[in-house]
Design brief:
single chain; alpha/beta; Rossmann fold; eight-stranded mixed β-sheet; 8 strands; globular
Length: 310
């Protein structure tokens, strides 16, 4: 048994060494445009809708990309809005600078600068997963920019981080993660399911592609900064106390997020639960998600919140 473990350990290590130079950019152009920040770094975005309409900013989570929102762009119920889906620095088709620390604060600053360059001074912010912490930070940095907040399966407290594997990886040194990351990229489809229960095949494929677009340093630094941010800030309490309209959308099969909702704001009217959806309800059930988002944008959410979905 020991010899077998040593053999497979060496085999995996060799595989990682052989492909560690594989840069991780794997960028397949999906259309869209770019804005160039003062730093020279470029942020990619997909835009749809009337230029003079209210802006809905769609922001992906850790290891994701703007592709997670693509199905919403053709949703007839929200065509009257200016939809802006971005790739945060380090992910998707945006630049992946090595001298960027990938903190929630720096990502929020980059988003704020991008919006300024686009001439946008007011948005409805829709953030998935890690983008929840980025959105909460953005609100703190520039009050008045976000007029309405929609969080999608976002963990807002270190008490609800859940999977122990991610927690351990967040404490690794970058050199160690660099050795393992190529293996994670190759096996991304198989590794997505254990982390998020039983997502749809479409979600698995999308997550695998987005992960292949990432780099070891952008993924690892983002994971570490996210954990640190959740430990240092009171996002959960801040979210509940927001003065602007705010909503929380989640999949009931996402165990730790559902636990956070149950423990903290189960009975609140701003919560909407997607039954049988996991971590990405906008991908698992785009039609229903679009209906819910349209209701939120139009302030008609009272008819959308279901009782007894927990």
């Amino acid at each position: 048994m020991l010899k077998k473990r040593i053999f497979w350990g060496l085999a995996i290590a060799l595989l990682c060494i052989l492909i560690v130079g594989y840069g991780g950019n794997d960028d397949v152009s999906s259309g869209g445009s770019e804005v160039t920040l003062a730093s020279g770094w470029k942020i990619h975005y997909i835009e749809h809708g009337p230029k003079n309409a209210p802006v809905v900013l769609l922001v992906h989570g850790l290891g994701g990309s703007s592709e997670y929102w693509r199905q919403l762009l053709s949703c007839p119920e929200i065509q009257k809005y200016r939809l802006l889906a971005i790739d945060m620095l380090g992910f998707g088709s945006s630049d992946k600078p090595k001298d960027f620390d990938y903190s929630m604060e720096k990502q929020a600053e980059a988003i704020r600068e991008s919006l300024t360059l686009k001439g946008v001074d007011k948005v409805t912010y829709v953030g998935h997963s890690m983008a929840g912490a980025v959105g909460m930070t953005l609100i703190q940095q520039q009050p008045g920019l976000v007029k309405k907040l929609v969080l999608v399966d976002s963990t807002l407290s270190a008490d609800y981080l859940g999977d122990k594997t991610f927690n351990r990886i967040s404490r690794w040194g970058e050199w160690k993660f660099r050795l393992v990351f190529p293996f994670l990229k190759v096996c991304a489809k198989k590794l997505t399911s254990p982390f998020f229960g039983a997502p749809s095949q479409q979600t698995i494929n999308m997550a695998a592609h987005a992960m292949r677009q990432s780099t070891y340093y952008s993924f690892h630094r983002s994971l570490k900064r996210l954990h640190r941010s959740l430990e240092e800030h009171q996002f959960l309490e801040d979210f509940k106390g927001l003065k602007i309209p705010h909503y929380y959308v989640f999949g009931t099969e996402d165990e730790w997020v559902a636990r956070m909702v149950n423990d903290n704001f189960r009975s609140e009217p701003f919560v909407y639960a997607f039954e049988k959806a996991v971590h990405c309800p906008m991908v698992d059930d785009p039609e229903s998600f679009c209906t819910v988002l349209a209701g939120i944008l139009g302030d008609s959410t009272s008819s959308l919140v279901k009782e007894g979905t927990f």
